[in-house]
Amino acid sequence: MRVRRRRRGEETERKREDMGIVDEVAALREQTLARIAQAADTAALEQVRIGVLGKAGTLTAHLRSMGQVAKEERAQVGKTVNEVRSAVEEALAARKAALDAAELAAAIDAAAVDVTLPGRAQQMGTRHLINAITDEISEIFLGLGYTVAHGPEVETDYYNFEALNAPADHPSRSLADTFYVVDRSGDAASVRGESDVLLRTQTSGVQVHAMEDRELPIYVIAPGKVYRRDVADPSHLPQFHQIEGLVVDEGITFGDLKGTLDYLCKQVFGEERKTRFRAHYFPFTEPSAEVDVSCGICHGEGCRMCKGTGWLEILGCGMVDPNVLSMSGIDPEKYSGFAFGMGVERIACLKYNVPDLRMLLEGDMRFLRQF
Ligand code: DAH
Predict the structure, then answer these.
(1) Eight-state DSSP code of residue 225
(2) Distance (Å) from CA 317 to ligand 1 centroid
(3) What is the pTM for the complete model shown?
């Protein structure tokens, strides 16, 4: 009896426990549904799902323990647990759909483009001032019957110096002024700077190419880049542009040179500008001169632009030295000629009162668009 009673007592106890599960699961349902409703985002919602339906979840634990529920109660308890599971799954799915939609809407909002904002217009490039001046000067000479020649930027010592009568000790030959191209083989002489190959320091070498390659008479200009071992400052650049000119014909005089360059200056700077020729020295011309144009700011009075002189230096020129003609196989008894060379950046700055050559290279569209 005692045994049976005890058994009956145990059974009652178990029944009470099994029915306790039903209450517990009902409470879990309410609590879970509340947590689902409160989940602020899909990540929080996922935490709720794992906590309840995951491997170690609270409802999963109840499902696992179904085996220990008394047979008679199992259907009732199982039904409740399954109902709770469906309710939780449904609530999770509904909440997830709502949060997904909200998160998508937020992401779209964040990435949205405000089509009412003013647009950023594409910057249109312009022809660079250096090219504009080169073209302008080329046009002037084309109008005088000249042709445009081009020479190599990587030159030999012969064309850059020797054939231009530059004595071996001429200062422009020094290592400090010239970029020499060092032989890739590491040739000792070339490493010491005795290379024969260099970046041209002037366009004057094109004179020699023209005299070698062209039929006489010669009327050419040669625009192009030149290189010097200079540190950039307001009036120097390590790479800049020159325009060279060369005329070789019968009966060419210094008067032709003066007339041509005076015409050039008036075309570039204006009819009212004057020119003056100052004696100078260049190895490849004799006599040689530097040409100044009257200052466009003070008209010769003297100002800061012209450093008080009333004049601006714009180019070098002279009558081609007879030595230079004969070295290129031209008879100096029959032919004479003149040559000139100018810096394009310098002319551009003088024409537009630009105080610093480096401004031409900065690529600032606000500056460049003005020309
Ligand atoms: N090559 C000279 C220079 O770079 C400029 C020059 C002077 C060119 C006199 C000439 C000339 O053709 O005759 O400074």
Answers:
(1) E
(2) 6
(3) 0.69
